[in-house]
Amino acid sequence: MKPECMIIRMGELTLKGRNRKRFERSVMIQIKKVFASYPSIRYIPEYGRVYVELEGAPYEDTLKDLKRIFGLSSISPAYLAPLELKSIQETALSMMQGLPKPPKTFKVSVKRVNKSFPYDSQEMNRLVGGYVLQGMPGLTVDVHQPDIELRLELREERALLFAEVIEGAGGYPQGTNGKALLLLSGGIDSPVAGWLAMRKGVELEAVHFHSYPFTSERAKEKVIDLARQLASYTDSIKLHLVPFTDVQTAIHGVYKDNLLVTLIRRAMYRIAEKIADQNGAEALVTGESLGQVASQTLPSMNAIGRVVSLPILQPLIMMDKQEIISIAETIGTFAISILPYEDCCTLFLPPSPSTNPNLRMVEKIEDSMSFLPELIEQAVQQTETIRVVFGAKKEAAEQHLF
Ligand code: ATP
Ligand code: MG
């Protein structure tokens, strides 16, 4: 039995009083995109949810896309029956028999909107529950903690039944929480950080630092592939590619010791902030996770983060690597991230990077590098910006903007 309807529930956004209308509008745009090739779809919006009558649109395919929409808390396949006892009972039984994971316990909840229906909620509960129990030996009723809640809504014209509740992506609808600039490396962490920011409704642009020819064209391709995977959640992402070779080699030319990573990171952040300002981004997003490497201790993060005044969002900061990897797998970035191409930050690594950089010392070294501001400015000027589009063919996908 194929679902004839879907109940799509909006998540946290229902809590945000004044913004609700705007959020619902934004989420509806995304939902309608999923069903764009099925014009006979019917939408019935209600508070915090929308009923979609599928009218022949494929359930599995559209579900896959709906699960990627931020701002949706859950989705239920639903079935329709005429307002007539026998049909309702039969629909309830086939729906229960068709559940992907057979339940051991269940309960029935009835909502009777149509007051002219001959049986009241209590009676319907018993009549439908009893019928299902008869048809599914081994199933029992548990009113407190059932595996499955069979819900029956007796509406004005028809009965609506559903039981399965499929988790949605959660968060806030696309672009409803401002814009930020993601520092996107080729690693596992930063794409996950970006996705978590997007899930909170943050519109993302991304910046990547490459050190061509020390890093290869393939390394850059890998980052474009990661950006494309992230773009699958929004349509497209603007990616700024910063030529970082001159900055890195110039710093390395005069200083090679344990504060090198701190110095290079500070230069990176300075460039990122300028690009953020030029593009109206109000925060930076990075993939640090506390304690993971030398530059991710609190003293390091303090010494690095001070060079910018924009907020630095670090969604992974308190997560364990395994948790990060599991999100990376779910969102489809892991397989790309583990490809072997080198990152610019692994170049020129000092033998023992400081885990406790002295800020005064760092600033003193920087003061002696009079060439630095100009090289930073130059890197910003020479940044190449492309728009990475999801879905389009690879060659056609990257549209050069500058
Ligand atoms: P990731 O897995 O994201 O590469 P990491 O664990 O390797 O992170 P670091 O190398 O310390 O950690 O980088 C910390 C953060 O700095 C990254 O998550 C990313 O946001 C940013 N970053 C590092 N290298 C680059 C780069 N080449 N271009 C843009 N951002 C970078
Ligand atoms: Mg890395």
TrEMBL record:
Matches recorded under NCBIfam families: tRNA uracil 4-sulfurtransferase ThiI
Record field: catalytic activity: [ThiI sulfur-carrier protein]-S-sulfanyl-L-cysteine + a uridine in tRNA + 2 reduced [2Fe-2S]-[ferredoxin] + ATP + H(+) = [ThiI sulfur-carrier protein]-L-cysteine + a 4-thiouridine in tRNA + 2 oxidized [2Fe-2S]-[ferredoxin] + AMP + diphosphate; [ThiS sulfur-carrier protein]-C-terminal Gly-Gly-AMP + S-sulfanyl-L-cysteinyl-[cysteine desulfurase] + AH2 = [ThiS sulfur-carrier protein]-C-terminal-Gly-aminoethanethioate + L-cysteinyl-[cysteine desulfurase] + A + AMP + 2 H(+)
Stored InterPro entries: Rossmann-like_a/b/a_fold (IPR014729), ThiI_AANH (IPR020536), ThiI_fer (IPR054173), ThiI_N (IPR049961), THUMP_dom (IPR004114), THUMP_ThiI (IPR049962), tRNA_STrfase (IPR003720), tRNA_sulfurtransferase_ThiI (IPR050102)
Protein family: Belongs to the ThiI family.
EC numbers: 2.8.1.4
Official protein name in the record: Probable tRNA sulfurtransferase
Main localization of the protein described in the UniProt heading: cytoplasm
Record-level Gene Ontology MF annotations: tRNA-uracil-4 sulfurtransferase activity
Top EC category: transferase
HAMAP family: ThiI
Domain of life: Bacteria
Keywords: ATP-binding, Cytoplasm, Nucleotide-binding, RNA-binding, Thiamine biosynthesis, Transferase, tRNA-binding
Organism of provenance: Paenibacillus aestuarii
Cellular localisation: Cytoplasm
